[in-house]
Design goal:
three-stranded antiparallel sheet, binds adenosine-3'-5'-diphosphate, four-stranded parallel sheet, about 325 residues, Rossmann fold
Length: about 325
């Protein structure tokens, strides 16, 4: 008789064979699963995560669109939640670990053969546990949706997201032959890791309106504009607002500085090594600006993306 793991691997392989597939620029392929495109190096982890993850009420999930500020929001969320355990200036884990290591993506955590060992490791983590994910809202495990855990979500103007993504793809995979125009074509058809991006954003957007204590919806541009306000907002949302004493002692400013683009980019820990064996840490820090897309978009590309966004987002109340 086949072992449980053997049976599971067999079922997963058959499932993968049955899914629609497209070529990807970073991973080998994208698979269409539950209406979203998943990179081949994530898909098994996504399926396991969905099947096996047990959320705790105290968990915090940092959910994001790739290339929209994940590295930043993970650092901020970790620093806000753990500000009593670690002072911001000395021996802070963010000075010696990349934020993706401190707030690991659940789809990578579950990219393993031995799920039972993984589950027992996870249950022993100090609470509140903080995890990341790119999985869209409809495909999150039931226990995340039904428990009292909280979700902090970030997305970004698709114009900047696609430029960031295209450059990241080229750096991580120098053999990528897709031009930015071709990348945009695919993006507008929704064929991009964890896309269609519109559906990704709308899933969390609608949930944040229906259930504002469950999902906090943030935009990269808003954080860039007024980080002080949003650090406080995240802390309030996570039920750990800053006290007046903390405010006057500069705790908020310390967190903002610790997580700033310049500070993080220049840390030794972020200059070498990889995240998830595949992605170079240094490539997660490029310009960190709003509006760099103007240096890459032709008038035809502007028209194409503007039209698609109008079509996909109109009437939703979500705009950029
Ligand atoms: P650019 O490529 O436009 O520079 P993600 O973390 O989701 O992969 O997103 C990467 C984008 O966030 C990159 O954008 C990167 O430079 C920017 N970024 C990384 N760390 C940041 C920080 N601490 N503050 C602001 N932006 C940051």
């Amino acid at each position: 008789m086949a072992s449980t793991e053997g049976l599971q691997a067999y079922e997963e392989e058959n499932l993968l064979l049955s899914l629609p597939k497209e070529k990807d620029w970073i991973a080998q392929h994208l698979y269409l699963f539950q209406d979203f495109w998943y990179p081949s190096n994530f898909i098994e982890g996504v399926i396991n995560f969905q099947k096996h993850f047990q959320a705790k009420d105290s968990d915090v999930i940092v959910a994001t669109v790739p290339k929209s500020g994940t590295t930043w929001l993970k650092a901020l969320t970790f620093a806000i939640l753990n500000r009593q355990r670690f002072s911001s200036s000395h021996n802070h884990p963010l000075l010696t670990s990349n934020s993706h290591e401190l707030v690991p993506p659940l789809e990578l955590i579950f990219h393993v053969d031995n799920i039972q060992d993984k589950l027992s490791d996870l249950s022993n983590i100090t609470e509140p546990r903080v995890f990341g994910t790119h999985v869209p809202f409809p495909s999150l495990p039931k226990s995340i949706k039904e428990s009292n855990c909280k979700i902090v979500y970030i997305c970004r103007n698709p114009f900047d997201t696609i430029v960031s993504l295209w450059i990241f793809a080229n750096k991580n995979n120098p053999l990528n032959e897709l031009t930015i125009e071709e990348t945009l074509e695919k993006y507008c058809k929704g064929i991009v890791g964890f896309g269609p991006t519109w559906e990704h954003m709308l899933g969390y957007w609608k949930e944040s309106i229906a259930n504002p204590n469950k999902v906090l919806f943030l935009k990269y541009e808003e954080l860039k504009e007024d980080i002080n306000f949003y650090v406080k907002r995240v802390a309030e949302f996570l039920d750990c607002p800053f006290t007046e004493e903390e405010e006057s002692n500069g705790v908020i400013e310390n967190i903002i500085n610790l997580c700033s683009f310049e500070k993080m980019k220049n840390l030794e820990v972020n200059k070498s090594g990889t995240v998830g064996r595949k992605y170079e840490k240094k490539y997660f820090f490029r310009k960190g600006e709003v509006g760099d897309w103007v240096n890459y978009f032709s008038p035809a590309m502007i028209e194409k993306l503007s039209k698609t966004m109008e079509e996909k987002l109109s009437g939703s109340g979500l705009s950029f």
